[in-house]
TrEMBL record:
Residue intervals passing through the bilayer: 12-32, 63-85, 91-108, 143-163, 175-196, 208-229, 235-259, 299-320, 348-368, 389-410, 416-433
Species: Amphritea atlantica
PANTHER family, alphabetized: AGSS FAMILY TRANSPORTER, SODIUM-ALANINE, AMINO-ACID CARRIER PROTEIN ALST
InterPro entries: Na/Ala_symport (IPR001463)
Lipid bilayer topology: Multi-pass membrane protein
UniProt keyword Transport present: yes
Membership in a protein family: Belongs to the alanine or glycine:cation symporter (AGCS) (TC 2.A.25) family.
Keywords of this entry: Cell inner membrane, Cell membrane, Membrane, Symport, Transmembrane, Transmembrane helix, Transport
Taxonomic lineage: Bacteria, Pseudomonadati, Pseudomonadota, Gammaproteobacteria, Oceanospirillales
Subcellular location: Cell inner membrane; Cell membrane
Protein name: Alanine:cation symporter family protein
Length: 490
């Protein structure tokens, strides 16, 4: 039954829905992910990105890193290897395609999460698909918001937490000979110390951890590319040819390439799942579109950069052989490939990278689960503490169990999770476009930092308390004029 549902969801339904909606969002928004690509870097370097509100809100930068912590995980190391094993090198091409389209999807889901976020008494925000479904679609869609929250809790809070623990523990056993239960216990202890500190502590850890792990993995890939620079064009040609079935002997042909590219691409970058909007909503930003642009960039980081790193490490290695790699697991294949490039210490490097990726993802998964529970009960601390204990136990249990059935079940719940969120995005797409156009109009009017004015959207069920500490649009216009005058004077 699990295999049948998996094949139905991922082999037929989701491929069509993801591609069609991704194209719709891209075309209807006039290719927002490409038009704003330069703006992604401007916002990334702007002071507003790092701005903290005095009451303790998270900055846009922290929210970005928290979402990257979730997107960048075992899927970037093990998932890419599995995609190549089962779908051939062409799966990487379709991962790129789903990533580029996913940037538009992520833009809209994160913009909507910011638009409909809810202010909390402690100075933080809550938001995500359950919130924009309830506030944006109204009471008659309350059932969809509740269903989404349950699926999010089961998929990320429980299933993927156990999976990440399993991946990290087995990788460490392979590289260092450390028994899986030792790794599971150590992981549980460290995770427990952090998650009891809430989202602010998780964000502070991610602020340090994510750049280290991402830049480290990118650095080792640049070394590999430098050692094999003359073969890079051949690998690119191999990927493209395989993507269109021109190398039928590699992998499972074009069908398997597309299937694995879409499935592993979505698993890695999570665009359309609605997971990233849960953390995108917590940021203090002047306009919802700001965080939409930043979160679109996080999809680019995950799929177009870090997934490509693993792909090139494997395909440039001497151990890559379509006839023999089928028997190797995802992590083991990446470890063997890097060891072929730089020596046996490459196995240890992959294990450490997977530890950092998996650890950051567990923290992210915990927050998604907490956000799901918060949707049903905002002040039940006993419920939250019970969930925290469950996460700690899952880190131990997941490290030592055979999780084949859990993986299959999590894939199915992830599929239904995506369908629920994509339905909401389709219904709220006009609202997302309206917010995007408000941002663009202000920029056309010469306002360098557009400000969101909830009064202009009074017909929407927006929480005014989530925006009452921002400067007004007139303040922004006055500031722009003052800056322009100062430049002219100097």
């Amino acid at each position: 039954m699990l295999e049948f549902l998996n094949d139905l969801l991922w082999g037929k339904v989701l491929i069509g829905v993801l591609i069609s909606l991704g194209l719709w969002f891209t075309i209807a928004s006039r290719f927002v992910q490409f038009r704003y690509f330069g703006q992604m870097f401007k916002i990334f370097s702007g002071k507003q990105l790092f701005k903290h509100e005095q009451q303790g809100h998270l900055s846009s930068f922290q929210a970005l890193l928290l979402s990257v912590a979730g997107r960048v995980g075992g899927g970037n190391i093990a998932g890419v290897a599995v995609a190549i094993t089962l779908g051939g090198p062409g799966a990487i091409f379709w991962m790129w395609v789903i990533g580029l389209m996913g940037m538009a999807t992520s833009y809209f889901e994160c913009t909507l999460a910011q638009t409909f976020k809810k202010a909390e008494p402690d100075g933080t925000y809550r938001g995500g698909p359950a919130y924009y479904i309830r506030r944006g679609l109204g009471k008659k869609w309350q059932w969809l918001a509740a269903l989404y929250s349950v699926l999010l809790l089961v998929t990320f809070g429980f299933g993927f937490t156990a999976m990440q623990s399993y991946s990290v523990a087995t990788s460490f056993e392979d590289a260092f000979g450390i028994p899986t239960y030792y790794t599971g216990i150590a992981l549980a202890l460290i995770v427990g110390l952090i998650i009891f500190g809430g989202v602010k502590r998780i964000a502070k850890v991610s602020e340090v951890l994510v750049p280290v792990m991402a830049l480290g993995y990118l650095g080792i890939t640049l070394v590999v590319l430098g050692l094999n620079i003359e073969r890079i064009p051949d690998v690119i040609v191999l990927i493209v040819n395989s993507a269109f079935g021109l190398n039928p002997a590699i992998g499972g042909g074009i069908g398997a390439a597309i299937l694995m590219g879409v499935k592993r691409g979505l698993f890695s970058n999570e665009a359309g799942l609605g997971s990233a909007p849960n953390v995108a909503a917590v940021a203090y930003v002047p306009h919802p579109a700001n965080q939409g642009i930043v979160q679109a960039f996080s999809v680019f980081i995950d799929t177009l950069i870090l997934c490509s790193c693993t792909a090139f490490i494997i395909l440039l290695s001497g151990i890559y052989d379509p006839a023999t790699i089928a028997g190797q697991g995802g992590v083991a294949l990446t470890q063997s490939a890097l060891a072929d490039h730089v020596g046996e210490w490459g196995r240890m490097f992959v294990s450490i990278a997977l530890l950092l990726f998996g650890f950051s993802t567990i923290l992210y998964n915990y927050y998604l689960g907490e956000n799901s529970l918060n949707f049903f009960s905002e002040e039940n601390q006993n419920l939250f503490n019970t969930f925290r204990v469950a996460i700690i136990c899952l880190c131990c249990w997941g490290a030592i169990m055979d999780l084949g059935t859990v993986f299959a079940f999590a894939d199915i719940t992830m599929g239904f999770l995506a369908l629920a969120n994509l339905l909401a995005l389709a219904l709220l797409f006009k609202t997302g476009l309206r917010v995007m156009r408000d941002y663009e109009q202000q920029r056309k009017d010469g306002i360098e930092t557009p400000i969101f004015d909830p009064e202009k959207f009074s017909d929407l069920n927006i929480d005014p308390a989530a925006w009452d500490q921002l400067p007004t649009q007139q303040d922004a216009a006055d500031q722009y004029a003052a800056n322009d005058t100062a430049k002219a004077t100097s």
